[in-house]
Recover the amino acids of this structure.
């Protein structure tokens, strides 16, 4: 039975769970911006407001998931997009940012649908939208990975991961970010471990672009990874989680945060930050949140301690 828009949007109430261990966002943040990782996962600071691009990207993802799930229901997908944004209006610090998202969202989605919807029906069979995977490393530790959509090309039986990107800057740069960064590597590593039957050959960046009056939907190419690259990625993951564990334990033993979690202003200036007002400010005493933030009960419950213990248990059996 087809869900209503309200039912569809409330299947997964916990929107932050994708940022918890051990998804790609979690490891990418540690790798690129260790001080932000410290603020989020050790101090437990969560902003009262959310960066508009994050909300907007989630709204587009939800609309596409609905579109794929219900055989190209365009009107329902646009409604999902608009309802989702309105439900999160209180997370926008600026009313103008909310209005901008609500205005450009349907335009970008309509451009995408007009460009690809009918062609995709002829070219691809949907395997699953928002596919969730739990790939296991060689030491038994499991990751959490969620894929936008997995499709199979009707003409040859080969499968692809569709990866949605929205941008107001450059299609080429958006594609290059997928090609050079490790999000695609993580996705291909995960699906080849969990679903080797699908014969997934690459990630297909599905880019929605809007800048002023120019709006288009492009797919510049397919991003692939070799078996060697995927094997090395798993070894890098093992090293990263071990580094994360070592730093966490040293901080809990009394080492200063500045020694363990350095600032990375270059990455912050490029990607933005959830902590612009406190990035270089003095932090309040333990158990208190800075103005404009709240404390994450999941972190306060001591769940990170259990997470680190699980990694240590698995690390004893690491294979290289």
């Amino acid at each position: 039975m087809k869900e209503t828009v309200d039912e569809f949007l409330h299947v997964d109430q916990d929107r932050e769970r994708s940022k918890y261990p051990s998804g790609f966002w979690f490891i990418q943040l540690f790798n690129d911006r260790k001080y932000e990782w410290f603020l989020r996962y050790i101090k437990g600071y969560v902003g009262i407001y959310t960066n508009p691009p994050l909300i907007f990207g989630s709204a587009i993802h939800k609309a596409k998931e609905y579109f794929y799930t219900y055989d190209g229901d365009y009107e329902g997908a646009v409604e999902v997009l608009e309802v989702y944004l309105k439900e999160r209006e209180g997370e926008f610090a600026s009313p103008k940012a909310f209005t901008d998202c609500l205005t450009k969202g349907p335009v970008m989605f309509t451009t995408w649908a007009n460009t690809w919807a009918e062609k995709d029906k002829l070219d691809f069979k949907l395997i699953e939208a928002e596919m969730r995977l739990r790939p296991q490393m060689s030491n038994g530790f499991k990751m959490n990975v969620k894929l936008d959509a997995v499709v199979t090309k009707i003409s040859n039986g080969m499968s692809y991961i569709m990866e949605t990107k929205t941008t107001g800057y450059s299609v080429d740069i958006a594609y290059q970010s997928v090609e050079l960064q490790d999000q695609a590597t993580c996705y291909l590593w995960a699906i080849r471990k969990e679903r080797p039957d699908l014969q997934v050959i690459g990630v297909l960046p599905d880019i929605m672009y809007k800048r002023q009056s120019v709006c288009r939907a492009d797919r510049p190419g397919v991003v692939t990874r070799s078996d060697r690259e995927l094997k090395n990625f798993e070894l890098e993951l093992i090293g990263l989680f071990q580094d994360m564990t070592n730093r966490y334990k040293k901080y809990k033993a009394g080492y200063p945060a500045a020694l363990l979690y350095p600032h990375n202003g270059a990455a912050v200036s490029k990607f933005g930050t959830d902590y612009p007002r406190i990035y270089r400010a003095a932090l309040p005493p333990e158990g208190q949140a800075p103005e404009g933030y709240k404390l994450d009960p999941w972190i306060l419950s001591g769940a990170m301690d259990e997470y680190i213990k699980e990694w240590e248990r698995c690390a004893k059996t690491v294979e290289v």
Remarks:
- The mean pLDDT is 90.
- DSSP finds 13 helices and seven strands in the chain.
- The first strand starts at residue 45 and ends at 47.
- The radius of gyration is 20 Å.
